[in-house]
Amino acid sequence: MRELAVITGAGSGIGKAMARRLATEGLSVIAIGRRSAPLEALAHEWDVQEHAARLSQ
After folding, report:
1. What is the pLDDT of residue 55?
2. Of 2, 4, 42, 44, whose CB has the highest number of CB atoms within 10 Å?
3. Which residue intervals of the chain are DSSP H helices?
4. CA dihedral for 32, 34, 36, 40, sign (positive or negative)
5. Within its chain, how far is the Cα of 43 from the centroid?
6. Residues contacting 10, CB < 8 A, separation 6+
7. At what angle do helices 13-24 and 36-45 cross, to 10 degrees?
8. Bigger pLDDT: 1 or 39?
9. Which percentage of the chain shows pLDDT scores above 90?
10. What does pTM read for this prediction?
């Protein structure tokens, strides 16, 4: 079973760096952020087939 990491603030900065690092180490990563565009770019970078859910109040 693969380990799972949930990263908040994954659209930029330290959150993005941690998401990248943990993904390269083989963990499954759930990337969470306020803006969808940076997360879409991250998913594209990782060539993810299924991604992006946006919740709003």
Report:
1. 52
2. 42
3. 13-24, 36-45
4. negative
5. 7
6. 16, 18, 19, 29, 31, 32, 33, 38, 39, 42
7. 20
8. 39
9. 33
10. 0.76
